[in-house]
Amino acid sequence: REKAREERRLSDPHAGEGAIVDIDVGYDGAWQKRGQGHNSLTGVGHAIGVKCGGVVGHSTRNKKCRTCDSAKRKGTEAAPHECRANWEKSAKAMEPDIAVELANGAAADGIRFATVIGNDDSSTIKKLREEVDSTIAKWSDITHAKRSVGSNLYKIKKDHKELTANVIKYFEKQFSYAVQQHKDDPDGVRSALRSVVPHAYGDHTGCGDWCKGRTDASYRHSNLLNGKPLANDRTKEAVSTIFQTFAGNAEKLAPMGSSQWNEAFNNTILSKLPKTKFYGGSESNDFRVAAAVCQKNTGRSYVSTVCTSADLSPGKHSVAFAEQQTSAMKRQLDFKSTRSAKRRRNDLKSARSAKQGVSELREGTTYATGCTFTALEVDDDTEIPPPWMEPKPSAFHEDYVHVVFDLETTGLGPESLIVQIAAKVLCAKVLCAKVLCAKVLCAKVLCAKVLCDGATAFSTYILPDEPISPQATEVTGISTCQRSGRTELSVHGKVVPSCPLKEGLGKFHTFLCSLPKKCCVVAHNCKAFDMKVFAASLRRSGMEEAFKGCVVGFADSLLAFREYLKGKLERFNLGILNCHYEGPVFAAYDATGDVNALAFIFEASSECPSPAPVGVGRRHQDRQPLCPEEGAAD
Known about the structure:
With 634 residues, the protein is α/β, with parallel strands linked by helices. The protein is 41% helix and 16% strand. It contains 21 helices and 15 strands. It has helices at 2-11, 66-74, 94-105, 124-131, 142-156, 165-180, 186-200, 233-247, 250-253, 260-272, 284-298, 302-309, 316-336, 339-363, 470-476, 501-513, 526-541, 544-548, 557-564, 574-580, 591-605, and strands at residues 21-31, 42-49, 55-62, 111-118, 137-140, 401-409, 418-425, 430-436, 439-446, 457-461, 478-483, 486-491, 494-496, 519-523, 551-556. The protein has a five-stranded mixed beta sheet with strand order 3-2-1-4-5, sandwiched between helices. The chain has a five-stranded mixed beta sheet with strand order 10-7-6-14-15, sandwiched between helices. Strand 11 (478-483) and strand 12 form a beta hairpin. Helix 5 (142-156) runs antiparallel to helix 6 (165-180). The longest helix has 25 residues, at 339-363. The chain is elongated and about 105 Å long.
């Protein structure tokens, strides 16, 4: 009753003592049973003032009384008790009946329910106008209305294939825009809702100033597939019928009422009155609902207040805990109402939905009503393998052999196939970069001697399954030719021995396994190119697990030297680094030459010589830069 008086005071501060003040309330009901609860034995209804945010009235309905039922079974008269059974009709009729009771009793607190905000699932407003006051206004809860749009669209989705999940989300979003942009303007809401469907189908004649399609003939929809309008006339007619229904109720939608406080209060009741247990046979049900009302209106401190009124100690720790919980709840409420928090919730929801959709598609049918009764073939249940993802950040230890390697490929993009692999073990003081997923955080010189008993270099040519592009041949000199009816690999016109991809990767795996320790594979521009090409080849040949036993990860020397020589050089491709450390002339775009040059650069950088002038003299002048797109490598 205190909240009722507060709502009266906030609605009309100048009202006299005996005056009846019109207030706006959000109203909702709930059943104490899981599922739809249409056959529940108990129910509760509550009205929350729009201005004060507190419960201004509540009541319960109970069909059972354990004491009365026990006496009836025994054939005896029930002992004197406070019987809580007050309902004999259906559970569906509980919510409207409680609303009538609360509206009739509001006059005792000097208030009148002038406007009721709620969902459109029950006949509450009809009952109120018939039995209380025919002038009571009804505002629709905007959140429930939006959900109702989606529900109606999903109902017809089976017969209209154009209504995909994304299209339904599009119509829900357009519905929200139409109402929000015309708040308190029923005519504007009505006109906007009627233009939503034609707008989606490319007809912009009825759109408002918000529509760019009215003046731009090349207008593209930002939330429809490929930016193109929808086209199915049968679907258009079905969706138009749904939107016309809402447009006809624009007066209820325009105020943008919300009963979300009532929904939140239902959760509070649920915490006191869990649906897994039945409390409706005694006064416990009503007491638990009353406890939820106290928590809503006064906060967690209601327990101490009740104890004090009963001449009991409120409890020092109980008071402190209540204050802590109330403060935390207020902070959480303030944070959740911020725009950034709302945006993050939407982003997380979209991400979860997308992940779930992909998982369900990949897994096939794992759970469905009666799925075991259908004849599912074994092949139909085969799970689609997950997509390859880039490695997650992980720190590299210094106790690994560092192997520089390079690839030559059939093209210039990361989707190309390998035609040459070359590698060399670093056998001197080396520049070791602390790397997180090929991203340099800190580069430093370590005096780490690597001792190798076996071979320290590797090179092999691989005959690809697809043609080598002219652009790649122009850069690397590698091409294919026909010899004695067989396809051979040639380098600058000279035929070289080659092998299939799996055989070549097997040789490389044998070389890496011969090293005394696991290795960290280092390449120049590894993150943007070599790592992706190499990983794709491993997947194609089914050798991922084999290489996991000898390779701990990849590192990118391009990123390492960018950090190590920051401020000393403007570009960091292999030719410029080789010139900087006064290295010998090497054949660029030959995997063997590139790994020898990179190994030399690592060895030279460990001694930190004085920077040499940057020029072209130590590199073939007729070659293109090794990393023409190195600016985009990050």
